[in-house]
Amino acid sequence: MPISDLERRFLDRISLDVPWALVETFSTMPRWMPEDVNAAADVIGARLTALGIPFEMHQPEICLSVPLSASVSAGGRSFRAKPPSSALPVPEGRTAPLVRLQANPKALRSYNRDISTLFGGSITSVEDVRALVGGKIVVMQGFGNPALTSLIEEWGGVGLIAVNPGIDIHWGTCTTIWGSPDLADLPRKPKIPVVAVNNPDGQVLMAMAEAGGEATIRTDMLEGWFPQKIPVVTIPGSVEPEKFALLHGHYDSWDVGVGDNATGDATMLEIARVLWEGRAELRRSVKIAWWPGHSTGRYAGSTWFADRFAQDLDEHCVAQINCDSPGCRWATSYHDTRAFTESAAIATQAILDIVPGADVKTLRPPQAGDYSFNNIGLPSFFMLSSTMPEHLRLEKNYYDVSGCGANIAWHTENDTIEIADRDVLMTDMRIYLLSVLRVATPDILPFDWLATCDEFLETIASYEAASGGMADLSAARTVTLALHGALSRLSEAAPAPRNAALLRLARLLVPVNTTREPRFRHDPAYTVPPLPTLAIAAELPRLPEALRRAGQVELLRGMNRYVASIRAALHVAEAALK
């Protein structure tokens, strides 16, 4: 679609002066220790003040786990290591025999707990793997992610050594707890030490494991509840100021974290400047928030905001837009753009209008990236930003990482100023600004729930086919087809009831497609399949005979949740048409 005159006026205001100055400042400021994170928030606040933009500076106490040091000792040698956040602290060391596991390399970047996916069929019996792993320290290629850590702990492993793909060691996290824990979450805190080592050292350790060796893991962590600052700008709309879009990203980092996420912080600062100057032309408000606790608190900052302002978000927030790792060198492709189906057209068109001819592919967002609002039910798009073209990544022999525009400096000390690119940053800022405008300015909210309904029908068909006749999902299909018919007529509704319906549909359809937990709770940080309460249908043929009846009970309960949600959505759509 052509860029409108209003959008052009905003886009023409974009400049590199303010954002690049913040990138340069943050490139000298490590932002992972609690006091350093607060100092960075003060920098953001000072820049906002200098621009004349009012803001709130919240300072909640959030739960953090900050890696300090780690090592692995084996065979008379000491190996350099890094512990992920939330690893069990064992400064005195934990010693046990080593065992090597082989995993599917493509699955290890994801947070998937499906052992058939993780291990590609090499491990099929939980009993066998428990016998292999129990009482041992597992050493395996990949990243020490939450799903893998939780599985090894369940299998009786007493530690995990993740062998990273390259010469550098990457920081990360290993807890499935999303945000600061409540009483129900606490039992899921990792009970084993986890470390990452580089590939050359990991090859030695895996050989030791094959030879029957043992190792000692040491981890030292700073853990507790810390006051952390959260700057939030509210740019008021002039027609519906109570309704707002939320643009957000994290400002804490691993070390100085330029590509992850100083460039994102700078993007949000520049968008705040541009929107503030043109606020009279906004229909709806825009909130812009910078989060702490992303890296060391598993999204604790955004989760606190989701909890503290849940009722306001539920009543008034029209969408959330995540800003992470824009403006990185060589990141000129958009083949890995994340968006829920109802928002995919917004993201795609904004990219194409700024980068004509771009190869844009939108994918389902993983359970990551400060997507702390799924249980409330917010339409969502973007997570990581532009990325390196796949052919270039392969030419450079870069392995797959989860940020920095595919630069393997991600989550290492090498994520420094040269990772940022001024031209790419300018392009990505324009994409973000245009997409925000297309949520904040149109008379009718732009979310395509009919496309989401089509997705649901495809998911239901795939699960039913995968069940091999063991699951009858006809009730889910019937009610979804009814909703599809009502949604196809929703454009006939008057603007006010139509917008109200579009907002209410989000609160029903996003959670049923992305969460297992009830609304206002947070799902664990591992992969959630589409329509998760129906997903057991596809697993029935793989369940042992003794578990299939329990699987059928789970499916019946999941069907009840799904059908009730879709019926509620149908009532919303029909009411808007009256």
Structure description:
There is one protein chain. The chain has 578 residues and is α/β, with parallel strands linked by helices. The chain has three domains: 269 residues, Aminopeptidase (3-Layer(aba) Sandwich), CATH 3.40.630; 159 residues, 3-Layer(bba) Sandwich (Glucose Oxidase, domain 1), CATH 3.50.30.30; 129 residues. 39% of the residues lie in helices and 18% in strands. It is built from 18 helices and 15 strands. It has a seven-stranded mixed sheet, with helices on both faces. A six-stranded mixed sheet has the order 1-9-11-10-12-15. A two-stranded parallel sheet has the order 13-14. Helix 11 links the parallel strand 13 and strand 14. Helix 11 crosses helix 13. It is globular and about 70 Å long. The mean pLDDT is 95. Pfam families: Peptidase_M28. This is M28 family peptidase.
